[in-house]
Design goal:
The chain has 3 helices and 8 strands. It has 168 residues and is of the alpha+beta class. Strands 2, 3, 4, 5 and 6 form a 5-stranded antiparallel sheet that branches. Strands 1-7-8 form a 3-stranded antiparallel sheet. 17% of the residues are buried.
Length: 168
């Protein structure tokens, strides 16, 4: 037990050093909204824990900095996002065509997904990293005035975890 304080100190130091901050004056946030039809297949859909999933038609739309994308018809939703039109639902023939022997097919499910990214420039380099809804919304608010943002990067600088306006 006497090693516990030193282990906690080492883990805290590791956690603090694995994230970094940077200030960005040039940035763009994107949210890729998509709809995808998928069907689950299994020998027993009720008891089989890992059914096979087949993907059918999908549509997507790229939102940039909160502005309405060209061709957008659905939105903005309660999170300020624009959505593509729905892809065509797979018909019974398409669903049965992908079924293997002894398998049963579930009903087509429409999956809604959003992937957020932030592209920012520091010096002559541009970085594009995955991010979250909160960072996307902060950029949407800051972008019209081009307010500089302090970005808090995730572990190994592989993501943007937080964005805050820099006070001038």
């Amino acid at each position: 037990m006497r090693f516990l304080p030193s282990i906690i100190t080492a883990l805290t130091a590791l956690t603090l050093t694995s994230c970094s901050t940077t200030t960005a004056e040039q940035y763009e946030a994107t949210a890729l909204t998509s709809y995808t039809w998928q069907v689950k297949y299994a020998n027993d859909l009720i008891s089989q824990p890992q059914p096979r999933i087949e993907t059918f038609a999908n549509t997507s739309m790229l939102n940039r900095n909160g502005f309405k994308p060209p061709g957008a018809v659905v939105g903005p939703d309660d999170r300020g996002l624009w959505w593509p039109t729905l892809p065509p639902r797979p018909n019974v023939d398409e669903v049965e065509q992908r079924k293997k022997s002894q398998e049963e097919a579930g009903k087509p499910e429409l999956v809604k997904d959003v992937q957020y990214k932030l592209t920012y420039g520091v010096g002559n380099t541009q970085n594009t990293l995955p991010t979250n809804y909160e960072v996307y919304r902060q950029v949407v608010k800051a972008y019209p005035q081009r307010t500089p943002l302090e970005l808090i990067l995730g572990v190994n600088d592989n993501s943007v975890e937080k964005a805050e306006p820099v006070s001038k």
